[in-house]
Specification:
This protein is an alpha/beta fold. It has two domains: 197 residues, 3-Layer(aba) Sandwich (Rossmann fold), CATH 3.40.50.11820; 181 residues, Rossmann fold (3-Layer(aba) Sandwich), CATH 3.40.50. It has a seven-stranded parallel beta sheet, sandwiched between helices. It has a six-stranded parallel beta sheet with strand order 10-9-8-11-12-13. The longest helix has 13 residues. It is globular and about 65 Å long.
C-alpha cells in the first residue's frame, strides 16, 4: 500500500514539474539506488573540477551518499530536501545511469534527460527484450508495469553511445532517433588508461577507505582474478549451482592468487558460503570496480559488457564462465552473434573453470582484441567527459 501511495503521489506531482523554468547552467546527476557510481559519477567529478561556470549537483535518496560526496568537496543534496527538490525542478540537464528515477522521476518534467547508460548492448536491453521475465514490461507493457515503472516509458532526449554499431541497437532499444545517440564513449573508462600517478591521486581523493585498502593489498598476490557476472532477469542466486567456493579458494591458495567476486546489485547471494575462505573475497554490490580493474590480471565474466571495458587495457586476460549459456540465451538473447563478439578462454562448467585457473594462459589474441575495440568503441573510447561537457555547454 505504501508503494502504491508513493507512486500515486509521484504521478500527481509530475505534471507540475513542467511548469518550472530550467537553467542551462544547472546540471543534476544521480545513479541507481542512490549510489555514487558508474558513468554519472565520473562525469560529475570531471564537471565539478573543470567546469566552474556550471553548477553541478549530485542528487540522491541516500543520506550517506550525500555525506560522502560532501566530504570529498563536491556539492550534493538529498533529493527530497528543500534544496534538492528545487535543484531537481530547475536544472536544465539531468545525467543518470539508467532512468530519470536515478534522481526522482516526478521532478523530471521539462528537463533534458541524458541517459548515460551502463554498458554496451551485447545482450538485448529495454524495448529490444522480447521474452523472459521482463516481457510484461517491454512487450506487453501492462498497466501495472507502466504504473510501477513510469520512468521506463519516458524516452530520453539523449543516450550515450560508443560507436555506430552500438547506436543502431540503442536507438531501437530506447525508441529514439540515431541522432539522439551520442558516440562519445563512457566516462567510467577514462581511469583505466590514466597514468599511475593520476589514477592514484583520484583514488586517494574520491574512493572510500575500503577500496583504497583493497587496492594496496592486491600487490601481495601473484595473480588477481576478478569475477564480474551480469545479472539474470529472474534475480536468482545462480552462483549457488555454478560454484564450489571452497574448491575455488583452495586453487587460489595453491597458486598464491586472489579471487575477487562482485555480484550485480540485483543478484541474490548467500554470504555465508564465503565464511572462512582466505583467498576469495566477496565485494559489496555498491563497490565501484573501475578503480580496481587496472590492478587485476584476469577478468572472469559471462554475458556482461564489462568485457569491452576491460579490453581497453593492455596485457590483460579473460575467462568466460558460461555454465548457463543456453538458459541465458533463451531468457534474454543477444543483439549480435555471441561467438563473434567475445574473446577469451571459455569454461562451460565448474571443472573447466578450475582447469582454466590452473593452466598457463597464452593470453588474448591481440588481433581479435583490436578488432573488437574498433567495432565497439570506434574512436570514442577516451575523453568522454570532455566531449560530453562541451556538447551540452554549447547547446
Amino acid at each position: 500500500m505504501m508503494k502504491f501511495l508513493a507512486h500515486l503521489i509521484c504521478f500527481c506531482i509530475y505534471p507540475f514539474s513542467f511548469l518550472f523554468p530550467r537553467d542551462k547552467k544547472k546540471w543534476a546527476f544521480g545513479s541507481f539506488r542512490g549510489a555514487f557510481n558508474d558513468n554519472a559519477k565520473y562525469l560529475f567529478i570531471h564537471m565539478s573540477e573543470h567546469m566552474p561556470e556550471i553548477e553541478v549537483v549530485w542528487l540522491s535518496v541516500s543520506k550517506s551518499t550525500v555525506a560522502e560526496i560532501r566530504r570529498k568537496g563536491a556539492k550534493a543534496y538529498h533529493v527530497l530536501s528543500p534544496k534538492g527538490i528545487w535543484f531537481a525542478l530547475t536544472s536544465k540537464y539531468w545525467f543518470f545511469n539508467a532512468y530519470s528515477s536515478d534522481i526522482m522521476f516526478c521532478f523530471s518534467g521539462g528537463a533534458t534527460l541524458v541517459n548515460l547508460w551502463h554498458g554496451l548492448p551485447l545482450k538485448r536491453i529495454e524495448f529490444g527484450i522480447g521474452s523472459g521475465p521482463l516481457a510484461k514490461r517491454y512487450v506487453e507493457q501492462t498497466f501495472r508495469e507502466r504504473f510501477n515503472h513510469p520512468e521506463v516509458f519516458v524516452r530520453p532526449d539523449f543516450v550515450l553511445s560508443a560507436s555506430e554499431m552500438c547506436t543502431s541497437v540503442f536507438a531501437r532499444s530506447f525508441r529514439v532517433n540515431p541522432e539522439q545517440c551520442l558516440s562519445f564513449g563512457y566516462p567510467r573508462n577514462e581511469i583505466l588508461n590514466w597514468t599511475e600517478e593520476k589514477r592514484k591521486s583520484f583514488i586517494r581523493r574520491y574512493e572510500p577507505l575500503a577500496t583504497r585498502e583493497l587496492i594496496d593489498d592486491l600487490g601481495r598476490y601473484t595473480k588477481v582474478y576478478f569475477y564480474l557476472p551480469t545479472w539474470r532477469d529472474s534475480k536468482s542466486d545462480f552462483m549457488s549451482s555454478g560454484f564450489d567456493f571452497r574448491a575455488l579458494d583452495a586453487v587460489m591458495r595453491e597458486n598464491d592468487a586472489l579471487f575477487l567476486l562482485k555480484p550485480h546489485a540485483n543478484t541474490k547471494i548467500d554470504t555465508q558460503a564465503f565464511v572462512g575462505l582466505t583467498n576469495l573475497r566477496l565485494l559489496a554490490g555498491t563497490v565501484d570496480v573501475y578503480p580496481i580493474l587496472p590492478y587485476t590480471d584476469v577478468l572472469i565474466t559471462d554475458y556482461s559488457s564489462i568485457l569491452y571495458d576491460y579490453l581497453l587495457m593492455e596485457n590483460k586476460d579473460v575467462i568466460l564462465y558460461l555454465f548457463d549459456y543456453q538458459e541465458y540465451e533463451n531468457e534474454r538473447s543477444f543483439n549480435w552473434p555471441f561467438d563473434e563478439m567475445v574473446i577469451g578462454r571459455r569454461a562451460y562448467d565448474f571443472a573447466a573453470l578450475l582447469e582454466c585457473l590452473r593452466e598457463m594462459s597464452p593470453g588474448l589474441d591481440e588481433a581479435k582484441r583490436q578488432a573488437l575495440l574498433r567495432k565497439c568503441w570506434g574512436e570514442s573510447a577516451m575523453n568522454a567527459c570532455e566531449r560530453i561537457g562541451l556538447c551540452f555547454q554549447q547547446a
